[in-house]
Amino acid sequence: MPKEDKQALINFTKRFFEIPNDGGVEKWILQSVARKWKEHKFELKSKYFKADKTREEIEKSIPIGFFPNQWNAMVHYWFSEKSKHLSERGKAARTYYKTPHTAGSKSFARVRHDFEMTQKKTPGRIEFFSLTHKRKDGNFINKEAQELAEKAISLIEEQAATVENHSDYDIEDVVFASVFKEDKYGRVRGYGLGVTPTQLSGALQPKRRASQFEVDRLQHQMENMHSLYEAKIESMKEDYERKSIAMKMDYDEKLNSVTKAYEERLNDVTNEHERRLNGVTKDMEEFRTSMELFQKLFSQRGSWVILLH
């Protein structure tokens, strides 16, 4: 759209509303008009662009508020290959959109404002996602939205337990970026039309915040690993000492057992030797006694022979 036409739209809007001279507000006006025009074209195409109608029939059905040349240009675009390609791509992209919000025609800015007025606080991004994706009965719009919210809450609890010196909003912003992916350029999820990261406080700049958060998380993780390492080393030392004592006790026990067995065997051998020695000594004593008896008998026999002669 030419710059002159954009300025004309802004001036026309200012005729009905008191708008501050702020470039951000004027940008929001243009974005709002662009969105409404896009939605209007979608409604027109849904109503007039039918598969059972020819191009000529559609061109004749000129809606109120259109000049014939404007309407013909739009119909010509609908039948172009570019439009068909973008339409198919849009349908395919729409299949990946699993979590429609439940705010209806009420803008996120109004939903956020009403929440702040009633709850007296600013909702976190996960909290606002849950708020805008639940029905009036308090249940989520579908299973996918519930699983995303539960996953985010679980990660928040996990990060809060491991990372110190960070507010709940810090952690929630980083978890939101990891679960729902980072915001696209020039927009912030959950804040409605026109809001950009730079317009908010530093708390909602997820890339920078996520980097610092990740550094702190890794530092905390390294400290935990160091503590676990030290504890593991101490445990290994204690285990080594216990095993060394146990091995020494087992060695002493086996040594005592072998020494005892050796001493018992030595005693057995000594006793057996003494028994045999005693037996030989006894045999020699008996032999000597026999020899003495023989000599005595022999001496007596010699005396008998002399007497006989």
From TrEMBL:
- Origin organism lineage: Eukaryota, Viridiplantae, Streptophyta, Embryophyta, Tracheophyta
Please report the organism this UniProt entry assigns to the protein.
Stephania cephalantha
InterPro entries (UniProt xref)? Probable_transposase_24
Query: What is the name of the protein in this document?
Result: Transposase, Ptta/En/Spm, plant
- Domain of life here? Eukaryota
Q: Name one Pfam family in it.
A: Transposase_24
